[in-house]
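go over this:
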Amino acid sequence: MKFTKMHGLGNDYVYVETFSQPEPADPPALARAVSDRHFGVGSDGLILIMPSDRADARMRMFNADGSEGEMCGNGVRCVAKYIHDHGLARKDRVTVETGRGVLTLDLTVADGEARLVRVDMGAPILRAAEIPTLLPGDPPIDAPMEVDGRTFAVTAVSMGNPHAVVFVDDVVNFPLERLGPLFETHPSFPRRVNAHFVQILSRGEVRMRTWERGSGVTLACGTGACAVCVAGVLTGRTDRRVLAHLPGGALDLEWPEPAASVFMTGPATEVFSGEWPGA
């Protein structure tokens, strides 16, 4: 099985296209195997790039633990780069079918390669039942949630997958590795949750760290950065356009108006290709 390693701001996945080869028989097991950073390729998960009758390509995303996610913002940028650079859809605007629906992506191309990708991520999902979360509010805004004996103010947003956003004074020293798993599996989120801890630098700039559902600490989370943009507006902490600094780099986010899509712009990088035996 041929694969390509790609990343968006260090949020790395193993990509397998099934235009020219069969779909893996057991994607969850393959995701667990290739994601292992000592005995596999090493990644935050597996993404399949598949034919679609609704778009230029279809994306299926599996976390490092084998669970399937609805959406991945960094991943979809890499899918757009792959289908452009590898000739599957050689154009500056492409469409990708995801668990969130069909997304439109605009590519900035230099020397024949896509370098930056702007994604129309769709409008945020703000009804608690659809996020889904048991926290009060539609959406829950700074809702109290007890974790490890402390009460946190949590704003919940879905970008096709569930996110919990917590604003903190010092994100660098926040105990992410200890508290991240407790947020992910909190009873307030019946389908688990991606947890983001955010420090406000100004009304147009934030710094964030992420614990991703099924993958743990990651260097970047595109859907999470979009959720942070929305949460900043909902809580009155930020403007509608923000620059989010993640451990792997920066993303430009914009939520122009309440009923509008969130737009995310960031890089996509191809690292190497190889072959995985026995898939």
Remarks:
- Helices lie at 27-35, 73-85, 176-184, 222-234.
- The first helix runs from residue 27 to 35.
- Residues 2-106 form a domain with the Diaminopimelate Epimerase; Chain A, domain 1 fold (CATH 3.10.310.10).
- The chain has a mean pLDDT of 97.
